[in-house]
Amino acid sequence: MPVSDAGRRAVLETFQWVGGHADIWRVLSDGPAFQEVVAGLVAPWAGAGVTHVVGIEARGFVVGAPVAVALRAGFVGVRKGAAGSLPGPTLDTTSAPDYRGVAHDLRMQEVLRPGARVLLVDDWAERGSQAEAAAGLVRRSGADFLGVSLVVDELTDDVRARLRRVTALVSRQDLDGV
Length: 178
Prior knowledge:
The chain is of the alpha/beta class. About 30% of the residues lie in helices and about 30% in strands. The chain is built from 6 helices and 9 strands, in the order αββααβαββββαβαβ.
């Protein structure tokens, strides 16, 4: 169920299908639309005591960081790939296969502590495999995983239930007529 009329309208008015592929970048490239999307992602979580926002590389960084700023929370990036540019100790996992059948190695710095209240923010969740893997990293850190705030929700009910609370601006079905 949508949580922000303005955020929902912004997605529906700027989103495009290009060659059969979802082009969420068009939404993000429109300044006023992007601002409404961020506000819509923040709104249902404003009173939840979020201390950290987690975003999965790459679009999760783009939408997660401004949500963290708006919530006055820290931002923790989850990188894809087995090695790379995360200094210090990390937590690592491999996701179940995504909608393309690809399992991703995910890494996060060990910066979350018990008592942290963590929200995952992303642009789109199809099967939720990466979201569930990121939630697992958060839990392994000892932090409290609160749920997920999405631009587009394509999750099944069983995955949505495993992710605790899921809010979204639009569902995948909302984009069929766009």
